[in-house]
Amino acid sequence: MDRENGPRVPEQRAPRTGPEDAERGGVPEGAPGAPEPVSDLRFAVLGPVRAWRDGEQLPSGSPQQRALLAALLLRDGRTATAGELIDGIWGEEPPSQALAALRTYASRLRKVLDPGVLVSDAGGYAIRTHRGALDLDVAQDLAAEAEKLWASGERSEARALINKSLGLWDGEVLASVPGPYAENQRARLEEWRLTLLETRLDMDLEIGNHAEAVSELTALTAAHPLRERLRELLMLALYRSGRQAEALAVYADTRRLLADELGVDPCPELSRLQQRILQADSELARPVEESAPAPATVSRPAQLPATVADFTGRAAFVRELGDQLATAEGSVMAVSALAGIGGVGKTTLAVHVAHAARPHFPDGQLYVDLQGAGARAAAPETVLGAFLRALGAPDSAIPDSLDERAALYRSTLDGRRVLVLLDNARDAAQIRPLLPGTAGCAALVTSRIRMVDLAGAHLVDLDVMSPEEALQLFTKIVGEERVSAEREAALDVVAACGFLPLAIRIAASRLAARRTWTVSVLAAKLADERRRLDELQAGDLAVKATFELGYGQLEPAQARAFRLLGLADGPDISLSAAAAVLDLPPHDAEDLLEALVDTSLLESAAPGRYRYHDLVRLYARACAERDEQPPSEREAALSRLLDFYLSTAAGVYAIERPGDRLVDHLEPPSYEGLTFTDRHEAQDWLYREANCLLACVRQSAGAATLRRAVDLLWASIDIGESGANSKQYESAAAALREAAHETGDEHAEARALMALSNVHAHTGRFDDADRDAELAAGLADRTEDALTLAWAANSRGIVAIYQSRHADGEVHLTHAIDWFRADGNRPSEASALCNLSRIHLAMGRLTSAVSLAERGIAIYDSTGNSFRGANGRYALGMALTESGQHAQGAEALREALAVFRDSRQRLWEGMTLYRLAELELSARRPAQAAALAEQALAVLNGVGGDWRRANVLTVLGRALQGIGQTGRSRVCWSDALATYDDLGSPEADHVRALLHPAAVA
After folding, report:
1. What are the φ and ψ backbone dihedral angles of 399, each rounded to 5 degrees?
2. Which of 45, 131, 288, 592 is buried deepest, with most CB atoms within 10 A?
3. Sign of CA dihedral 691, 693, 698, 699
4. Rounded to a whole number, what is the distance in angstroms from the first to the last CA of the chain?
5. Which residues touch 478 (CB under 8 Å, ≥6 apart)?
6. Can you point out the beta strands (E) in 318-370?
7. Among the ranges given (85-99, 695-709, 952-966), the one the predictor scored with the smallest mean pLDDT
8. DSSP label at 213?
9. What is the model's pTM?
10. 505-514, 725-734, 802-811: which has the minimum mean pLDDT?
11. DSSP state of 415
């Protein structure tokens, strides 16, 4: 399959011959996908035939009258004779009074429409509308524009327009309109809709949305089994999703179906795709590639420092700055200012760009190191004296004052084309007198300060290298042979250097000078964070010295903020969290953080969020150990951060689960957190802060903070359940469990074990989940922690459901219900009731299963707990489905699905889709079941564990068998069987029977 040119939108239609309006609008207000109207009369044919004036629907009359309107609308303004219209509406056997009826319909339409819209012409009729009055026109224009955007590389915009075009369809085209003409047009427009749909799916695959496309393509191939293009797209989507066997099975199914139904082989495109999949063609797996950047022009101005021979990467910055400097040939002076952390390569990049820009500045290039990072920055008048001498002014002509020298400097440059490189500037005040004042000249400035107050400057923030660029630089200095032999170790080295060019150059230079060292030796030395900065020095180059220059210029409050914020382990930090670390009001903390951003010692990751470069963080911590007095302030700062997260997470838990008493059993924090009134805002905070919060948990495993850290895990349980951060959550829980065990804190250990048990259960490791819950229960019994006892019983009951230990599960859940009731924790009692419902369901006690789930839902609804109420509806949906009440079961499951999606609970969203797929199978709707199972697989990708994925694959295989894709169904069952066998799950026998029914029989 040739995919180099990407998807193509088919030719739309012949040009309109009637009068047209220059305006292009949409369909009427109220029609699907309608934009704002630009005229008062609109028509729709991509669904029921309708007309609107000023957003109000007009009467369209009888079916035959609508057939006349549709026939005229679809002729693009051309006249249709009376005979053509009669044939189109009534076919070969029109009524005896067909012509009179036609005239009646036309007369009625004239009264409804605007004057001059329906006209009589040469014994026939025509409708004269402006372009865009008909929804079909809008759909065609959107599709045509999408093709242009795709060709120009604007891929996401093109896809959006195709979707918008498809959104104009509102059910069956020309719905309920009689006659052969309508029937032909209905078939034509349905074919075009499918072609557009194929185009949009092709776009999805080109931009990498293959996993999401599988579900839709599975349903479409079931609905249109002989449409080979859909099969081709499904094969490619499966292959790019890592499901090669299924992709090949689709081809086998297609080949068999075409042979049985039509007696033909698959088309050549489909066969070629099969061969490419068999050959694991690497080109097939790649989405659209970006075009390669244009090479920068290289030149050598005379007065600039030499460019480094091993200059690497930075292609985008070289291009951006080169383009900016080139504008100096026009009517303005170009000024570009590069800012960034010390050692990021500002000077190297600026010198390289200046050399490349030589053709634009034939009259010379000036350079000065302004020493802005040091204690004694260069005085502007001194620099101007040197510049004037370089430009040919004798000493006797150079005035004494700064203003006079600046004036003479600008006059001397008038009419010349000169580039001025001002390196290592302190601030904008230092460089303003040094800027040329005329067109044709340009200034290139580097500084650790972002020159926001330099009017008219093009500001560039220089970041560290990409991993690929960093490895290239390291290889250029060390040598290809040594690096290629230890590539992984080399990647570890550049990562330890934080991809900072200065650090990479130092590390590589040390290795190049020591032939007996291997790359692994250097990587091992840099692995120790406490020694890393000391290792990164060679000769007069040292990373620590570079950072020291910036730190030495900070005011005392800024230096304190720099030190303390570096103590937090998270990937970044929010303004609110930083305020807690510093024990300052947010606006005061923001002033300090923004000042650190301006000095490039801190980065602004996003509005209200800040982060350190890895090496700068190590330096900040070294400064905290050396300079922070008293030393206890370090522990106090981290304790405030922990309290901030605990207090805020507890508030999120409370707003998510009204009435749940967990928050009453947590360690009381001494520092206030954020408060929320909106549930979605609270959720946004929790998921946005997940990585930072879990890093704080891991960092708080000391005896003084251990219990609060464990309770923070409990309060942020949604992070562990959502799937997005399950591994980090589990790692943090394991670290706290180990710390609690070592210190003998059984209370904290029990709660850490319950956090682990919860993660194990959600990832399908049920033996581990039951073991940890049992251990937690024993510890909680000794420490009289009633909440942990209740949670452990509930967790063990859940595990028993999955392990088919129904009697055990009933005992555990009955205890949980009693303990939750004793604590007055009604939402948790409801949770245990819903879990007990599933036990009764598995034991065949359908009536009590429904009743228990309904009791749980009643409690949830009475407390306003919509999130956990979804769990109740999940249990109720299963019970109703098993009872044969499919419609009611589906309703309950879909209500649960909406809440899970809204709460971003991927595990439960996926499991609900799986249950709905089971329900559709029970109702003998395999195509719908396959689509739902595919959606479940996509949602559960990386979430829920292998056991749950195997369950979904089993159902998907049954659904695929039901729509005739037997080859693909067997691939799904084979994958599920391999998983069950690996896990030792009893479900293996059931799947084996599906694969080999004859053997079982």
Report:
1. -70, 170
2. 45
3. positive
4. 43
5. 490, 508, 511, 512, 519
6. 334-339, 365-369
7. 85-99
8. H
9. 0.63
10. 505-514
11. T
Reference 28, options 15, 19, 45, 40; nearest CA is 40
> The tokens of 737 are what?
């469990």
Q: 3-state DSSP call for residue 158?
A: helix
| Token code pair at residue 556 | 């005392």
Q: Which residue has the higher pLDDT, 996 or 592?
A: 592
536, burial (CB in 10 Å: exposed 0-12, middle 13-18, buried 19+): buried
User: Tokens in use for 948?
Assistant: 């749950």
Contact yes or no for 944/907 (Cβ under 8 A): yes
pLDDT at 296 exceeding the cut of 50: no
**Distance of alpha carbon 513 from alpha carbon 788, whole angstroms:** 59
Q: What span, in angstroms and rounded, lies between the C-alpha atoms of 719 and 649?
A: 11
Q: Where are the domains of the chain?
A: 1-207, 210-285, 315-461, 467-539
Indicate the length of the chain as a whole number.
Answer: 1001
Buried/exposed code over 764-775 (b: 16+ C-beta within 10 A; e: otherwise) = bbbebbbbbbbb
Three-point CA angle 368, 370, 374, nearest 5°: 145
Q: What value does the CA radius of gyration of the chain take, rounded to a whole number of Å?
A: 36
Please report how the helices 945-962 and 926-939 are oriented relative to each other, as an axis angle in degrees rounded to 10: 160
Interatomic CA distance for residues 99 and 553, integer angstroms: 94
Residue at token pair 């891929």: 155
Distance CA 47, CA 33 (A): 12
Q: Cis peptide leading into 630, omega within 30 of 0?
A: yes
Helix pair angle (746-762, 706-715), 10° resolution: 30
- 408 with 388: CB under 8 angstroms? yes
- For the chain, the farthest-separated pair of C-alpha atoms sits apart, in whole angstroms, at 113
Q: Which residue's structure tokens are 């076919």?
A: 91
CA 393 to chain centre: 59
Q: What string of H, E and C letters represents the secondary structure of 513-547?
A: CCCCCCHHHHHHHHHCHHHHHHHCEECCEEHHHHH
Q: Which CATH superfamily is domain 315-461 in?
A: P-loop containing nucleotide triphosphate hydrolases (3.40.50.300)
Contact 508, 473 (CB under 8 A): yes
Q: What is the pLDDT of residues 567-590, one digit of tens each?
A: 999 889 999 999 999 999 999 999
φ and ψ of 174, to 5 deg: 50, 45
pLDDT averaged over the chain?
85
Beta-bridge partner residues of 420: 366, 443
Dihedrals phi, psi of 424, to nearest 5 degrees? 60, 50
**In this structure, what token pair is assigned to residue 9?**
């939108």
Element (H, E) at 845: none
For the stretch 378-393, pLDDT in tens is 888 888 888 888 888 8
Residues 657 and 868 sit within 8 Å (Cβ to Cβ) = yes
Cα angle for residues 397, 403, 407 (degrees, 5° grid): 60
How far apart (Å, rounded) are the C-alpha atoms in residues 877 and 378? 76
Domain at 1-207, CATH class: mainly alpha
**865, 660 contact by CB (below 8 A):** yes
Q: Note whether 624 and 564 are within 8 A (CB).
A: yes
Q: How far apart are CA 681 and CA 658, in angstroms?
A: 16
Cα(625)–Cα(272) distance, rounded to whole angstroms? 65
Q: Is the pLDDT of residue 34 over 70?
A: no
Handedness of CA 384, 385, 386, 387 (dihedral sign): positive
Q: Which residue has the tokens 């040329």?
A: 436
Evaluated on CA atoms 492, 493, 498, 500, the torsion sign reads negative
Map residue 765 onto helix, strand or coil: coil
> For 210-285, which CATH superfamily applies?
Tetratricopeptide repeat domain (1.25.40.10)
Positive or negative torsion for Cα 443, 448, 451, 457: positive
Q: Cβ–Cβ contacts within 10 Å for residue 670, how many?
A: 12
CA 532 to chain centre: 34
Place of tokens 């549709």: 70
What is the β-pairing status of strands 458-461 and 334-339?
A: parallel
